[in-house]
Amino acid sequence: MPVCNYGPQTQTQILVRCFFRPKRKGQQVKLLHTSDLHLGKKIKNISLLEDQEEALSSILSIAETNNIDAMILAGDIFDKGVPSVNALNLFQTFLENCKKSDIPVYIIAGNHDDASRLSCYTQFFTNSPIKFAKPFSSTPQYDDLKVGNEVVRIHFLPYITPAIVRQEYPEHSEEISSYSDAVKFALSQQPLLQNAPNILIAHQFVIDGQQLPEQSDSENIIVGGVDSVDYSLFEDFSYVALGHLHIRQTIGRDTVCYSGSILPYSDSEIKKKDQVLSSATTDVTAYYAEKTVELVDITNGDIQTQSIPIHTSKTFRKITCTKSSIDKITNEINIRNDYVYVTLTDESFVNALYYVKEQFPNLLKLTFESPSGKSKKVTTTYEHPSTHNNLLEVITNFIETQQGSELNEDQRNILLSIITELNNSNEEDN
């Protein structure tokens, strides 16, 4: 089970910071905004828990280095509503280290979280700066963060749907038919702090008019954008810390921001050109993922933001190359243990999957994209057979490949029941 371990020296530094936080000039508040941890998530049956542990360690280090006044976690803490024990332990360890560092943390539930279960963490952090949003209710949720003479009001808006808001405000049901209606009404109930910054933490699908934000294959977005809300609804807030979309971006204005997920959970999030690998040989095109957190600096009412990279020992990459260039890459550049999506531009060859897997043990997907004729390309995708250990996994991987997203637990259970019935039927026939 992964456990965050920062070593004796770091622990000493943590204690020092608790008692000797340096004073800053002027009226300044520094926040660190991140979201979409998805603790416990797997990609192609590969657990990312150790990588998530490294990412959280990096985030805590960034928080300490920048002497932040509070951290914001904008939802989707876990990948499932009922997370694994290891995922729960990892999160609790992270929060305990934040507490040791005297870092207030504000946390809301996302659409992947069970808001009631998440809020139960409150009992473990009584009399501490760790604040969990409760499930949405008719009682507005906020907290006043005091830094010196400066006061910043932090507003909580956990993931909501029209049905959730109507349930809490039945007398206004007719007014709340869309996601925009729900968010607009919920925000109208929040008591704004006058003549001071108001910060909103929200987990929704936010758009700029007709312009859709950049999305990835690992997100759960309702087809047609039914769940979208316009950024103009947030005009009363100085900064809006968003979660839900996994690619870092701003919507409408610089201070309405998605921090993005802490790790890339699909190959569509791998976008940064890798000049080193791409120049290794002429037939290589490579990209890697860079994930960041947002440092929000509020000085005398003025807000400046900065994206700071999250560091982990393994990088997520997309590599397009020929078979002959793979050996050159792995021999000259130490990327053997990285997570890779490989596209080969050769014609398919015998045992290709095993060959590439030998070079890249953490291969996530192998695709052949070889020329056929003058312009047409033939694309074939192979998954590693280690994930195909039974019929359930074979069918699951096929469906996930076709729809571009992973099946949830309920869908897997339905498939399992169907397969069980078929097996029982075959046994009876025999």
Strand order of the largest sheet: 6-5-4-1-17-18
Distance between the termini: 45 Å
| Integer average pLDDT | 83
Enumerate the spans where pLDDT stays under 50 for 5 or more consecutive residues: 1-25, 373-378, 384-389
Largest sheet: 6 strands, mixed
CATH class of the largest domain: Alpha Beta
Task: Give the helix/strand class.
Answer: alpha/beta
CATH architecture of the largest domain: 4-Layer Sandwich
The proportion of residues forming helix, as a percent range, comes to 25-40%
The domain count comes to 2
CATH topology label of the largest domain? Purple Acid Phosphatase, chain A, domain 2
Shape: globular
Radius of gyration, in angstroms, nearest whole number: 24 Å
Tally of strands: 22
Name the CATH superfamily classification of the largest domain.
Metallo-dependent phosphatases
| β-strand amount | 25-35%
SS summary, helix count: 11
Layout of helices and strands, plus pairs?
Blueprint: H1 7-19, E1 28-34, E2 42-43, E3 46-47, H2 49-65, E4 70-74, H3 85-100, E5 105-108, H4 115-119, E6 130-132, E7 142-147, E8 150-157, H5 162-168, H6 179-188, E9 198-203, E10 205-207, E11 228-230, E12 239-243, E13 249-251, E14 253-258, E15 272-273, H7 275-278, E16 285-288, E17 292-299, E18 302-309, E19 316-321, H8 323-332, E20 339-344, H9 352-359, E21 363-371, E22 377-382, H10 391-403, H11 409-429
Parallel strand pairs: 1-4, 4-5, 5-6, 8-9, 9-12, 10-11, 12-14, 19-20, 20-21
Antiparallel strand pairs: 1-17, 2-3, 7-8, 13-14, 15-16, 16-19, 17-18, 21-22
